Amino acid sequence: MSHVAGGRDEQASERAALQVCPFSGAGRNEDEISAKRFPDLPHHPLIGRWRDIRAAHVTVDGFRSRGSSGGMTSWFLSELFRLDLIDAAIHVRPQGPEEGGPLFTYDVSSSADEAVAWQKSRYHVVEMSQAINLVRSTSLRYAFVGLPCFVRSIRSLTEVDLQIQAGLVITIALVCGHLKSSRYAEYLAWTQGIPPGALEEMDFRHKQRGRPADRYGIQAVGRDREGNRVKRERTVDHIRWSDWGIGLFKVPACDYCDDVVGETADVSFGDAWLSQFRPETEGKNLVITRSELAERIVSDGVSRHEIDSVRLSPDDAARSQESGFRHRREGLAVRLAERQRTGRYTPPKRVVPDSEALGTAFGTRMLAREIIAQQSHSQYAEARRANDLSAFYRFMKGPIRRYRGSSPKSLALSFLETVERRTPYLIVRLGSRIRSVVHLNR
Asked: Got the DSSP string for 145-165?
């Protein structure tokens, strides 16, 4: 009997895991989850349900200068603590070299000061099982911060785990282009003279005075080849192939995700990549509220003049992430069609496969982008074994050239980026505006 019971438990656990996994197709999708949680809100085909939408930044206490963008995520967490709405926040923090393991990990902040200390974007894989187990083992009130797929998983988990449901007060999504493997950080450091295995700290979004917010610096701390501890920094446009649209080291599942803004979260924060905000060095956040609690917190901050904001339309919000939506909607339709054509597993998505686009220039471009992501993992592993970064450059040059050559806009973008590297700030602003007008792909 115990063997039978054990088998049933395993089957139940497997069913629960499939329901929670955002890529299994067994659970409810983002539309279904958000419709249940926010039934009275209007729905937009790209950003999902919404209560209010803003472009905003924090004006107090250095939140904006310390953060990756406008400082809204850390300010919001601080407000949750100040108002005694939560006892702890689950989010990603850097992990010191003395701790061993990856550069970043999910952990729990038990105060506003801790939450603020863990600011910044983390373009690095993480897993959250330890943090979730902590929620199960306590009776505290939690906020959860994560990428759209993580938030969707948490939402699904609350339906099968009552302890998680009871402890979760609010969810915060971070608008996502895609997730990188841990090798992305290592690659960025290697380009700056810090070899594999010697990276200790990484700031993916180091703000640069006098430059637009999307021309940030990459700052790496570690040991050089002589063993000296060094801090190195290069702007993103001086690191080969750091253009996000190329997709080096992308996690494969990200090419089969259709949620850019975190449609199931109570509130979403991202970068307001609109022409009027791009030149701002300090950055501006896109803010999409869905729950009454989230909207009240943001509105109160605006009333107290702690938040400077302008309201945006749903179309404005979608336009601020247009390249992400292009990749995850029209581009996903191409990738799904290609998988169907070749007889591979096709995860159920809200996007309909588009077989007619396979032979178009756009379809060719989308498939070339996926090839780059796939080959970057294996070719970097070869370069790492050979201790030769130039080998990675040599092999990846061909796939990236074919990708860039698949679109005249891509060639124009490369030209503009070259110009920007050699021009003062005022002309950079002009280049930024030109790019937004002609809607060049990133």
From this structure: EE-HHHHHHHHHHHHH-HHHH
Two tokens, residue 348: 């159920």
DSSP labels for 340-357? HHTT------SSPP-GGG
Strand order from edge to edge, sheet including 307-311: 104-109, 88-94, 142-146, 168-174, 267-271, 285-289, 52-58, 307-311
CB atoms within 10 A of CB 366: 26
Give CA 256 to chain center in angstroms: 14
Structure tokens at 345: 């597993």
| Domains recognised in the chain with CATH numbers | 18-179+253-321 (3.40.640), 323-438 (no CATH)
Q: Phi and psi dihedrals of 438, rounded to 5?
A: -90, 0
What pTM was computed for the model? 0.86
Q: What is the pLDDT along the chain (442 residues), one digit of tens a residue?
A: 455 455 555 676 777 788 888 888 888 999 999 999 999 999 999 999 999 999 999 999 888 878 778 899 999 999 999 999 999 999 888 876 666 678 888 888 888 888 777 666 677 778 888 778 878 888 899 999 999 999 999 999 998 888 889 999 999 999 999 999 999 999 999 999 999 999 998 888 776 666 666 677 889 999 999 999 999 988 877 889 888 889 999 999 999 999 999 999 999 999 999 988 877 778 899 999 999 999 999 999 999 999 999 999 999 999 999 999 999 999 999 999 999 999 999 889 999 999 999 989 999 999 999 999 999 999 999 999 999 999 999 999 999 999 988 665 555 555 554 554 445 444 444 554 455 444 444 4
Q: Which amino acid is at 344?
A: R
DSSP E strand boundaries for 95-227: 104-109, 142-146, 168-174, 199-206, 217-223
CB atoms within 10 A of CB 118: 18
* Cβ-contact 249, 180 below 8 angstroms: yes
Question: 3-state DSSP call for residue 277?
Answer: coil
Paired strand residues for 106: 92
